[in-house]
C-alpha cells in the first residue's frame, strides 16, 4: 500500500483524504487540532509535519495561510527540519508567491522538491472529483504524482514553471469574486423591483447568466443562509487583495474587481468575515436599503 502524506484536514483536505483512502492509499494526516474524524475515515494521524515526512516521500498540503506553510515546511517540526532527499511536497493552497517560493527553496536546501499548486472548486466538487487541480514546477515531479491526482480528480493540469499554478488560481478567483458579487447585486436589484427572491433564483439558475457560483450561493443569499461555510468572506477577500496587488504591479486594468472589493470589505466590517462568502449579499442589501435576513449563529470576524 502506497503511503501519501496529507497536511491540512479542513474543508478541502478531508474529502481529499477520503478519496485517497477509498482508492487504497495509506494516508498519513496532520492537523494541529483533534484528528479523530480523519482517523474514523481510516487515516493515520501523525504528530507533526516532519513525522509525516519520515514515513512517505509524497506529501500533499492544503492549508489556510502563509504562516501555516512556513510552520509546516520550515518550523522546528517542519518537513524541512531534516533531510528531505527524494521527497516531493505538492502545495495546493492560495498563498503569496513569495512565501511559496521561499518554502520551495527550504525544501530544496534539504534535498527535497516542492510543486506549486492550487485547487479551483468548492468542497462538494472535491467530493465529486470534479474540482480542478493546477500544478507547476518540475514536470518530472508532476508526472511522478500523476497517479495521486488521477485518484483525486478527472481534471488536473500542468501549468509550467513554478508559480504558474498560483497565477492561474488568481485568474480563477478573479472570476469567482466577480461572479459572487454579480449574483448578490442581481438579487438586490430584483428585490428592489419587488421580485420574489426564491422564484428569481429558480428562473435564473439554468439560464444564460447562470454559473457554478450562482448555483452554490444564490439560494443562500435569498434565504440569508450563510452559516454552513464552503469558503468564508475573509478567505476570498484575502485573495481579492492579492489579485489587486498583482494587477497594480503589472499595470492591469481591473475596473470590475476594484469596484466589487469594497462590498467584500464592508461585509467583513459588518461581522460576516467568518461565515460563507454568500454573505456579501448583506453588503449589497445594506447599500440598497433592503432588509437583511439574520440567521442564528452569525459569527463576528
TrEMBL record:
The active site is at 169. Gene3D superfamilies: N-(1-d-carboxylethyl)-l-norvaline Dehydrogenase, domain 2, NAD(P)-binding Rossmann-like Domain. GO terms for molecular function: NAD binding; NADP binding; oxidoreductase activity. Residues 4-160 form the 6-phosphogluconate dehydrogenase NADP-binding domain. It holds the Pfam family NAD_binding_2. Keywords: NAD, Oxidoreductase. It comes from the Bacteria. Residues 163-282 form the 3-hydroxyisobutyrate dehydrogenase-like NAD-binding domain. This is NAD-binding protein.
